[in-house]
Specification:
The complex is a heterotrimer. In chain A, 70% of the residues lie in helices and 3% in strands. Chain A is mainly alpha-helical. Chain A has a single domain, classed as Cytochrome Bc1 Complex, Chain C. In chain A, the strands form two sheets. A two-stranded antiparallel ribbon of chain A has the order 1-2. Chain A has a two-stranded antiparallel sheet with strand order 3-4. In chain A, helix 7 packs antiparallel against helix 8. By secondary structure, chain B is mainly alpha-helical. Helix content of chain B is 57%, strand content 0%. Chain B is elongated, with a radius of gyration of 36 Å. Chain B starts with 8 loop residues before the first helix and ends with a helix. Chain C is an alpha+beta fold. Chain C has two domains: 21-50; 61-157, Rieske [2Fe-2S] iron-sulphur domain (Rieske Iron-sulfur Protein). Chain C has one helix at 23-49; strands at residues 61-66, 74-80, 83-89, 95-99, 110-112, 117-120, 125-127, 133-135, 144-150, 153-157. Chain C has a six-stranded antiparallel β-sheet, with no helix packed on it. A four-stranded antiparallel β-sheet of chain C has the order 5-6-7-8, with no helix packed on it. The two termini of chain C are 66 Å apart. The chains are: A mainly alpha, B mainly alpha, C alpha+beta. Chain B binds chain C through residues 210, 212-213, 238-243, 336-337, 340, 344, 347, 350-351, 354, 398-399, 401-410, 412-413, 415-420, and chain C through 1, 3-5, 7, 9, 14, 16, 18, 20-21, 23, 25-27, 29-34, 36-37, 39-40, 79, 82-84, 104-105, 107-108, 121-124, 136-137, 139.
């Protein structure tokens, strides 16, 4: 077995120069310390992305992106296609799981301050990927064309209209018209299966390339202890040790997804009626709840700015700061600036959790 | 001695006249034509002014007519002369004169054609065939005349939802008199019809917005209002409930009821308090109507029993299937196609209930058996869905075992390779 | 802590107290686990891509009947998606199709050969052969569907 592997590798190496890959893999090390567990979340996000692509491609074989066909095609997949229920439910559950994992990945990177020089671009590409993942969630949610999806999209895209100056054009661009219609569905489908995957692939390639070239970052606290000799500098090889553990986690995730799909299948709902009224208690998916709840608490008008615009501005500024954190937290020491940003991160995380909790209960 | 004012009294008369005319213009209705009646009377207090104030919402006003078109007189004359008999003034008609008063125009096709050619012009002659009309001729002035139902001075078209004769308002309009026990003293008819009707499915349907549902005038007529005779009841109900009537007339009950002078549908379903019928009304049980006439052992009793059984079977089968599909759906299975098929079993239940009116067990059972079969198939689909759900969970267990094996393999591999 | 992938040491336990399974066992477990899981993933995927017997979600077109199935002046109620529909063959042989859901309270309508019109048995509503509500309680006409004859099939098509 080992001999065959060596022969294939050798053949490829002569043609692609894969030897450097093997060399590189053998040399890539993962630092070992008490925060090592967070290193697994990036790989998990990548794995779930691959699951989404695979199940998504399978769903493409039966799904129809039109107002008259979408709901019926999803119903068809759930009832007539063999294992259609499995593929579709895995796709829906994995989407939610992936968003949760990227939240954790992003916050863990933030608190471990892995965005410090020279990894600023890794952080920026990662944040762009984060927004793309949220866009995947938002666009994909509409595709079954049921009542909940329709009205959640309506409310969500309404927000776009509040952007000053360009709001109206953005709204029309997103919706493919003034209202949410079949045109919106087809357009969101285009975003979801072509535009966003293309962008995500590019950014992902860049993100992974940067991670491989720059190696794994060590949190400042651990770094300091190592420098002071209070802790030995330990690491484990990426291949095979870390990777095998990664794979164990991936198997676990697969088991969880299968269980969720079989025991809590994703519901079909009722076909959207654009002329009906919104169901009571309509709200966006959980990953947007914190923004939704914040808007609810804002007073209708502060001075001359109305609450939606204020909310948009607030979250826009917060997002911009978050993306630019590597350039703002420039001292990289243990001084006040760094501690401020740690505090800011704790506030942000707490805010999101508390607001989401309030929205749910 | 002449008093010196800003002018002579004639000047003052002119000034007053001009002022009134100008005032009249400002108070003038939409029609370009002058209407001195409204102009003056809208400024009068109390009862003298009320008709004029109401008149702007009246359909006659909107057609360009004025008080004078009904009451006579001269609408262009601003003086009190406008209301002289010489100008044709008719004054306020006595109650007994009201039908002819309205009929002067409303029974004249050549006149009505000028306003609405498709309006009927036989209301007055129809009215005099009604109980109200007949009694009015005999001198009873307590009965309803045109203005009692249509109101006066603010008459709206019957198609206007605010009209007193719009379908949703008819019952209340009739009830003004017919539900007033004091007013109706001496007439020897009940006064609880409105209260009973309000409990009925028909009243609920109208309140729910279905203006095709019957109200008092639908069954009793409006201008020719008379209760339908005992032999006409089935015909009246049958204008909407055609199937039930046809089956009933052909059934043993049709001829039998006619012979006995029983009021058809009303015998079992009541006339005003028509409630939603339940399956318990059919059969031999405690709430059943059949056993008020039939006794154990006679043909009718046996038929009632068979029909009741058929209905109960279908209902039970339908509920069993509905529950199975519901359970399957709640545990996450997609069963909407089966649910759609089950709705035809529900339709069969409705058809069977209609077929009851043939009072023929075989006819009813034919329908209920069909429904039972459909329910059974739907039930099987529900059970199949539950089996599929169990199969999925078994498959999940198998996959999870495979995953656990793989994960433990990985674990041991890791431990081995990191030893030493 | 570097790792040696192919240790030449003995496979017997080296006394650290943890169970040692030996190289062959570990590889066996790992291998069979991986194969089993791959099968558990690949099997559903393969069955998924094989088209099911009803090849598409039929909601816009339905084969309502075969040519010659209906006589003149008769009709057939069939299922169209999740609702009943009615295919009428008129006295002159032409076909018309409508939704069979009465616009009054939702009962399923029928064709009356004696009246040459569509009738609702629930409250005596009547629609003419253009679907217009001409008598009784129904407040709106019946939606009409297009009828096409494809070979031996009579296909009924409805808009989105």
């Amino acid at each position: 077995m080992a001999g065959i592997k060596r022969r294939i590798f050798g053949w490829l190496d002569e043609r692609i120069g894969g030897g450097s890959l093997e060399e590189f893999l053998r040399h890539k090390k993962v630092p070992l310390h008490r925060h090592t567990i967070w290193y697994y979340f990036g790989g998990m996000a990548l794995f779930l992305f691959v699951i989404q692509v695979l199940t998504g491609i399978l769903l493409l074989m039966y799904y129809r992106p039109t107002a008259s066909g979408a709901f019926e095609s999803v119903q068809f997949i759930m009832t007539q296609v063999k294992f259609g229920w499995l593929i579709r439910s895995i796709h829906s559950w994995s989407a939610n799981l992936m968003i949760l994992i990227v939240f954790i990945h992003m916050f863990s990177v933030y608190f471990m301050k892995a965005y410090r020089k020279p990894r600023e671009l890794t952080w920026v590409t990662g944040m762009l990927l984060f927004f793309i993942v949220l866009a995947f969630g938002f666009s994909g949610y509409l595709l079954p064309w049921n009542t909940l999806a329709f009205f959640a999209t309506k409310v969500g895209t309404d927000m776009a209209g509040f952007v000053p100056f360009f709001g109206k054009w953005i709204l029309v661009f997103l919706r493919g018209g003034k209202e949410v219609t079949g045109a919106t569905l087809t357009r969101f489908f285009g975003f979801h299966v072509a535009v966003l995957p293309g962008l995500a692939t590019l950014l992902l390639a860049l993100h992974l390339l940067l991670v491989q070239r720059l190696g794994m970052s060590v949190p400042p606290g651990v770094e300091k202890k190592i420098k002071e000799g209070k802790e030995p500098e330990r690491s484990m090889p990426f291949f095979p040790n870390f990777l095998l553990r990664d794979v164990m986690g991936w198997y676990g995730a697969l088991g969880a997804l299968g269980a969720l799909a079989a025991i809590f299948p994703w519901e079909l709902g009722v076909k959207a009626n654009p002329f009906g009224s919104a169901p009571a208690g309509i709200h966006p998916e959980w990953y947007f709840l914190f923004m939704y709840q914040t808007l609810k608490y804002l007073p209708p008008k502060i001075l001359f700015i109305n609450s939606e615009l204020l909310g948009l501005l607030g979250f826009g500024v917060a997002g911009a700061i978050w993306v630019l954190v590597p350039f703002l937290d420039y001292k990289h020491g243990f001084g006040r600036v760094t501690r401020f940003f740690t505090g800011l991160g704790i506030f942000a995380l707490g805010f999101i959790i508390v607001m989401s909790g309030l929205a749910l209960f | 001695m002449m008093r010196r004012f800003s002018g002579s009294s004639r000047m003052r008369g002119w000034a007053l006249g001009v002022a009134v005319v100008l005032w009249g213009f400002s108070a003038a209705p939409a029609s370009a034509q002058k209407d001195s009646c409204v102009a003056c009377h809208s400024n009068l207090p109390g009862e003298y002014g009320r008709p004029a104030k109401l008149f702007s919402s009246d359909i006659h006003h909107q057609a360009g007519l004025s008080c004078a078109d009904c009451h006579g007189g001269d609408r262009t004359d601003d003086s009190m002369n406008a209301m002289s008999p010489a100008k044709g003034f008719r004054g306020v008609p006595a109650k007994a004169q009201v039908p002819q008063f309205c009929g002067r125009c409303h029974s004249d096709p050549s006149y009505m054609r000028k306003f609405n050619p498709s309006l009927r012009t036989d209301q007055v002659s129809e009215y005099f065939t009604s109980v109200h009309g007949k009694r009015l001729k005999q001198g009873d002035t307590k009965v309803a005349v045109c203005v009692d139902c249509h109101s006066v001075h603010d008459i709206r078209a019957p198609s206007d939802p605010r009209a007193s004769v719009y379908p949703t308002n008819v019952a209340e309009t009739c009830a003004h008199c017919h539900a007033d026990a004091n007013y109706m003293k001496g007439y020897k008819i009940p006064t609880n019809q409105y209260a009973l009707y309000e409990k009925s499915v028909h009243a609920a349907a109208i309140a729910g917005g279905d203006t095709s549902a019957p109200t008092c005038s639908t069954c009793h007529g409006n201008h020719g209002a008379t209760p339908p005779g005992v032999s006409s009841v089935a015909n009246v109900c049958g204008t909407c409930h055609a199937m039930n009537e046809q089956l009933f007339e052909k059934s043993p009950h049709g001829a039998a009821f006619a012979r006995m002078g029983l009021p058809g549908c009303v015998q079992c379903h009541s006339n005003h308090e028509i409630l939603k019928p339940t399956d318990a009304l059919v059969g031999t049980g405690p709430k059943a109507i059949c056993v008020t006439c039939h006794v154990k052992g006679d043909n009718g009793y046996n038929t009632a029993q068979k029909i009741s059984e058929g209905l109960d079977n279908l209902k039970a089968g339908y509920q069993k299937a509905d529950q199975a599909l519901d359970t399957a759906e709640k545990s996450g299975m997609e069963v909407s196609p089966a649910k759609v098929e089950l709705t035809s079993a529900h339709s069969d239940l409705i058809k069977a209930r209609v077929a009851v009116h043939s009072f023929n067990a075989a006819d009813v059972l034919k329908i209920t058996n069909q429904g039972v079969e459909i329910s059974h198939k739907a039930y099987e689909a529900g059970i199949a869905a539950l089996h599929e759900r169990d199969y999925r969970r078994k498959g999940l267990a198998v996959a999870l075992i495979a995953i656990v094996i793989a994960m433990s393999g990985l674990y041991f591999k890791i431990r081995r390779s990191e030893r030493g | 802590m570097e790792v040696d992938l192919n240790p030449q040491k003995s496979t017997a336990g080296d006394g650290d107290g943890k169970p040692d399974l030996g190289r062959r066992w570990v590889n066996l477990i790992l291998g069979s686990g991986v194969v089993a899981t791959l099968a558990a993933f690949v099997y559903p995927a393969i069955r998924y891509v094989i088209p099911p017997p009803v090849s598409e979600a039929t909601n816009l077109t339905v084969v309502a009947a075969r040519v010659g199935e209906l006589k003149n002046n008769s009709a057939k109620v069939f299922r169209f998606g999740s609702e009943p529909a009615i295919l009428v063959r008129m006295a002159d042989g032409a076909y018309r199709a409508f939704t069979a859901v009465c616009t009054h309270l939702g009962c399923t309508v029928q064709y009356r050969a004696d009246l040459h019109e569509i009738w609702c048995p629930c409250h005596n509503g009547i629609y003419d052969m253009q679907g217009r509500n001409v008598s009784g309680p129904p407040p709106r006409p019946l939606a009409e569907y297009k009828v096409h004859i494809q070979g031996e099939d009579i296909v009924v098509v409805r808009n989105a």
